[in-house]
Amino acid sequence: MQVHTVRDLGAAVREARSHQGLTQAELARRAGVSRDWLVRLEQGHPRLEVQLVLDVLAAAGLALATGPQPPETADQTEATWDELFSHLTGESDNG
Amino acid sequence: MQVHTVRDLGAAVREARSHQGLTQAELARRAGVSRDWLVRLEQGHPRLEVQLVLDVLAAAGLALATGPQPPETADQTEATWDELFSHLTGESDNG
DNA sequence: GCGCAATGTCGCCGTACGACGACATTGCAT
DNA sequence: ATGCAATGTCGTCGTACGGCGACATTGCGC
Description:
The structure is a homodimer. Chain A has helices at 6-19, 24-31, 35-42, 50-59, 81-84, 86-89, and one strand at residues 62-68. By secondary structure, the first copy, chain A, is mainly alpha-helical. Chain A is globular, with a radius of gyration of 14 Å. The first copy, chain A, binds a DNA duplex through residues 23-25, 33-37, 39-40, 43, 47-49, 52.
């Protein structure tokens, strides 16, 4: 999933969290932040400490990668979140 | 390039910047941050505003992506930075 | 040796962060 | 309707951020 704004990060965290059945309180606990703060992240608040964001990403089971922007990118069809998290929500999703 | 800490982000920005022949002042100008701040980012300061970080990433020609952590990841051999930026520093790298 | 550009550092100021505790609201099961 | 868990919001406090301007240092060319 491409990340351009904090809203994207918030959405990713929220998806990952709910797909794992974690509450805000639990994820915040694991990541070492306040629940209050986690709410702000999921809402896309722009002025958050970047290291805390990275901590939460990790605690939520999300990896982050960077690299050169492709010179020109049209519409890249990406997998849905349900697909991305299929290995967490239910191993056997066929049938 | 995997991003785990702010140091990783700082390194990525610095690489991208120098590979494009940009000065700190110029990149800071384009991203709308102070040069002072950009120095802190490249040094891996952990308490930076995440949205500003994203702005600089974009201004430096870096894309950011997130997704579920692979269940188990051994040592993934990645391309070197020189390879990643070959299309910026020199189009023709063959021969 | 000299000048220039780039980088890294410092002190100051206005501002918002991040944690905490309490509360209101929402969603769901019974 | 009731009870409970989860979520979102508010006010307060201590603290560091982010921008600014100036300076020291470094690296390079001549």
